[in-house]
Write a structure and sequence with these properties.
11 strands; single chain; about 10% strand; Aspartate Aminotransferase, domain 2; Aspartate Aminotransferase, domain 1
Amino acid sequence: MDAVQENLGLVAEETLDPLDWADVQALSHRVIDDAVDYLRDVRDRPVWREMPADVRKAFSAPLPRSPAPLDAVYAEVSRTVMSYPMGNIHPRFWSWYMGSSNFTGALGDFLAAIQGSNLGGGNHAAGLMDSQVVNWCKEMLGFPASAGGTLVSGGSMANIIGLTVARNVKAGIDVREHGVAAIEKPLRFYGSEQIHSCHRKAMEALGLGNRALRRIPTDAGLRIDIAALRAAITEDRRAGFKPACVIGTAGTVNTGAIDDLQALAKLAHEEDLWFHVDGCIGALIAIAPENAHRVAGIERADSVALDPHKWLHAPFEVGCALVRDAAAHRGAFAVTPEYLESMPRGLASGEWLHDYGLQTSRGFRALKVWMALKEHGVEKFGRLIDQNIAQAVYLAGLIEAAPRLQLAASPTVNIVCFRYQPGLTGEALKALNTEIMLRLQEQGIAALSDTTVHGEHWLRVAITNHRTRREDLDLLVHETVRLGHDIATQGSAPS
């Protein structure tokens, strides 16, 4: 033992803590100052820009073997990462359905990382706050306090959580013990043809396969056709399948269409189906005073997936799965090995939050949501949702009044599909509008995406941004018309 101690004494013990905390403190103040400037001045920067070759090359550098000064590390991050963002915090980013973050939430992420708690469970404050935020999500959606729930990475995982519980409850056997091969009748899940692709991934991950998810036609408003759904359920029962779950969509990705959740809840009850709602786009409309009626019925779901990193504008990433039957929720995931047994007191006396999902190690996602809700109050977030929906209506009006712009349909909520139409058809029309979209991005004006609605190509604007103003939408319409005219008259070569 003396020899071991003597040998250890020859090697200086190391740590990742700095040798001089004063230097780190000074740099940290500069980082915060830069961060404030970054958000304050975001409107003055391009929405997106292409990285030059030297910046792109920096991400191919080899593994660092020796240390570098922290201020040099930060300088490189500023030059590369911070200067070339995706752009989703910018007021004219409307490409995909994302939130736009907020400074208080970013501070919450920083503090969560500083504290470093693992939210797998245990008796500590972060665990209680995690449960509190889940309880607040229940309250926002009208779920009972007795319901289960968990914070996850985002909507895809939240949907997988809800659909896993649905599979286990409706299987008729102990799926966890015997596996899906032991299910007597193949299960069938139902959703509209506009359903998000994460549900296919869920079916595959759950061992049911893509064919277990039956896509139901939609009506003129792109909502699930209730009569067609009922007919499909009857047909599947006659064919020897077991209808298990209907997935309602509270806001489709393409157009924001919201299924008739009241009718789906009624049908699910009559047909003895699990009723899951994919609310990753629109569930939080429930807190918007002028538009909450659009998601009436969501409170009757057996499970709901929602995304605080969208309309609660939490920094990525945080999703939430709610399950009405808390016992069924825990029963779908809980495992208690000897090294994670609960104790009557001490650190292990708290609830094991990993019993409600797939992750044993869980980040402290709750703090960024908690801090922003405490600062602003849920009512303000509701008003911001109403504001985005009103902005979509405003944009639709601008499009209808603009020369050569065509609106796909009046917006349901906050997604607007349109195109520049100088009298072209087919691939020529698609190519023209695609080029408009790319030039808007490359010139840093605005970020849009495109999609297909009723078999036709359209540009798509998803307004989920608390920084967007009507003047941004005015600019979008003006620049779209300008670019459309330039491209149509000069050819489609990139500028």
